[in-house]
Amino acid sequence: MAYKLIALDMDDTLLTSQKSVSEKNKLMIQRALEKGIKVVLCSGRTHNAVINYAKELGINGSDQYMITNGGAMIENMDEKIMYQNTLPNSFYRRFVSFVKENNLHYNVVDTQAKTYTSAETWFDKYTITQAFENDGGLYVREPDDLPDDFEIVKAIINGNEQELDEISPLVHQTFDKDYFVVRTGVGFLEIFPKDVNKGEAVKHLAKILDIDLSEVIAMGDRDNDIPMISIVGLGVAMENAQPEVKKVADYITTDNNHDGVGNAIEKFAL
User: Fold this and answer.
1) Digit-coded pLDDT (tens) for 40-68
2) What is the CATH number that goes with domain 5-84+196-268?
């Protein structure tokens, strides 16, 4: 099979535990690009938290793309928005009421990569991490402080693994009917519009590019990668992936600290 598009999760997939790209991963991606294969960073991160990695890898120009905010936005590397799906202020207000009733920590992210949270005696470390990676500022605001037409791309409940394990059933019970709820990483339980996920975004981009899903490779490690891994021609799980991800994958590559992405590209795409 001649693959035409490779969709890559970033954290714990493309990136090492030190948040860097290994030399082999970088080399194999560059060779894939030289061969004419689209390499698409597909992340729960925002534009600001993805763009420098894309530049480092040589992914640039109007004919290259990235998927951000868990699939809520697709843009080319000239920053033209190809697709965007947001959550309205009415949801934002409902979400903040929920987290306050349950004494949770949270943040939300808007289309400009700005991070918002409510005033607290202390800010959760994962909220600070989110704001730092987004590089758009941390704003302490209540929903009533923002315009009626204010929209966000995602809402995040923050906490350690035990805290999120305990609250997850209630979050799913409350929001699953109308929204997509998923754990995206340690400390992050995220809520998106119902039809927003990495799989739908990859499907949408493939349609724009007239690429059949059978000609796509997707790689990832967590629950939020399952929608794309399960629909493409070749779904690749990292050795460090969660068991549920490995179950739906066609192939398990080495872990993120041992060139897993580069090894899979070399084996299947080059």
Assistant:
1) 999 999 999 999 999 999 999 999 999 99
2) 3.40.50.1000
